[in-house]
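re: ur question from yesterday

yeah so i grabbed the chain u mentioned. its 677 aa long if i counted rite. heres the sequnce exactly as i have it in my notes:
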Amino acid sequence: MQPRTPPGGGRTFGPDAQPGGGRRKGGKRGRKNFVDQDAVQANIEKTLAGMKGGGGGRKRGRSDEPSYRDIIASRTAEEKEREKTRIRVNEFISVAELADLMKIPANQIVAFAFKELGLMVTVNQRLDFDQIELIASEFGFEALREEEYQADVTEVEVDAEEDLQPRSPVVTIMGHVDHGKTSLLDYVRKANIVAGEAGGITQHIGAYHVALPDGREITFLDTPGHQAFTAMRARGAQVTDLVVLVVAADDQVMPQTIEAISHAKNAGVPMVVAINKIDLPAANVAKVKQDLLQHSVVLEEFGGTVLHAPISAKSGQGVPELLEQVLLQAEVLELKANPDARAQGTVLEATLDPGKGPLATVLVQRGTLRVGDNFICGKFSGRVRALFDERGNNVKEAGPSIPVQILGFEGVPSAGDTFLSVADASEARDIAQKRQRLEREAQNRRSARGGTLEDLSRALKEGEVSQLPIIIKADQGGPAEALADALAQLGTDEVRVDVVLRGVGQITESDVLLAKASGAIIIGFHVRPDANARSAAEREGVDIRTYRIIYEAVEDVRNALEGLLKPEEKETVLGEAEVLELFKVSKVGTIAGCRVTSGTIQRAAKARVVREGVTVYTGEFGSLKRFKDDVKEVREGLECGIAIENFNDLKVGDRIESYRLEEIKRTLATSASESQE
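ran it thru and got these structure tokens back, copy pasting raw so excuse formatting
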């Protein structure tokens, strides 16, 4: 077959020929001899360039811009490169740990910190985040702060409606001290709880699951009534479904009752009022109802929504009616939970048992907790080795609204920590170890900060704030927290309590050493120091005080704080003299001839020179004479000669006051009233 020549040009077309006389890639064979092949080729190249972001030759217009794929690829590459220079740190890592993260020798960091930052650091010294950021940027790294508890288990899934089943209500009993909260629970449980409390006053939160004769069940939380346990009552309200407010019929609405009302309202839970002690001769139920109205607690008989029942916790009168009202209120709430999900709950109380180790009372709020489950709670992980009810009996599992004591913690958790069972034990262990490390390093940093010149200068700028450092150790976490809150409320703008450490368990030698380093005193609540701690306290001069009643601890700390308050200076004007004449005496100075106009001028008192109502000098008397004799005092109406020490600029008409300053011990009450004024 012979090649043909089209009429519009000298180009050859055939099976082996390419347009333009060359073998170009991407060229097309043409059969129509009237097609403009140059225009076709130009369009093909333009289209390929736009699709591939490249191609042969120089591109014009939009073909100069990179394609979307090129942009994504370049960004991914940049992100990978940037990730190589990122280091994730917390605020309290040491120089050695930072050097290990950046893969550089630690001595380079030490040298840079000394030359450029003026810091003399050692390999094991801990750095704050600002220092870490400066050092990392110098070596080409970007420091990212890793927050406490950042890594966590996956969020709890939302339960489907068909998986939810009715659960028993969680009822918190609140009210003033000695109004009968524990006696009411004692009657319901048919057990004597009061005998186990120091002074007959509830010092801890108790959680009890009660099965009624008709088969229905209620979980009770018994919270202490004294104002020092405000935090514990508030925590009880946060996990409860409804509140039973106990008010004594022979008393009135007390401040702690008002606090309980506010806690219930803030938690958004309904309230049932139990008017107790109606069998006493002094009982006045009508007065209690009127008092409740003043605090926005409107009972049903007054047109409100609050149920109430007059009861006697001793004889049991009215208690069944109260329980009926509690169950009726619970039915209105339609309380449900998924018993088949993984267990989730809240730590109500935690203690260090001498025989069993760390024990925590947990209220299961969702799912079912079983022996053998792995869990994460606060900064501790563990595996459920045993479950106990409130009477110490072994149970195999606990469903929603069931309080149980859990054995299997690695340490004592804090009251209020969230408890969550997990499937992967290694993941829970990693999270717990990370949280413990952050907590430990934060504590080390806080301890290292104490007693520096920077802190002293900062305190002086803030108004010379005095602090009383205290270490609190208790048998359970709740009382430790409550005692810390009660002591913190004693402080004023001038003096305050600084809780260096709040822990659970026996007072140990490490506590004594920490108290020595921070200048703190140790308060033990229901715990005692061991032998090593006692000998260390005697050796280091650390004060250890132990208490069984919280009021005594608060009172002792109050007295200590009042000792730190600067005494108040009270000025007493003793007398006043008027300058009549001036005499210049060589080697003595100016002597003022005066007449005492009021009171007495005393030689040992302080002197003040007042000119036209303005104080011009305050100092001491140089001499006091009657005629030529030195005297100790001159009474009103007599004339005398007065010399003011280190002051000769006296003038006729000046008034010289004699006064005395007295130091008066101040109390926290007077200091607080002055700060409010």
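noticed a couple things. Residues 463-564 form a domain with the Rossmann fold fold (CATH 3.40.50.10050). also Residues 425-449 form the longest helix (25 residues).
anyway ttyl
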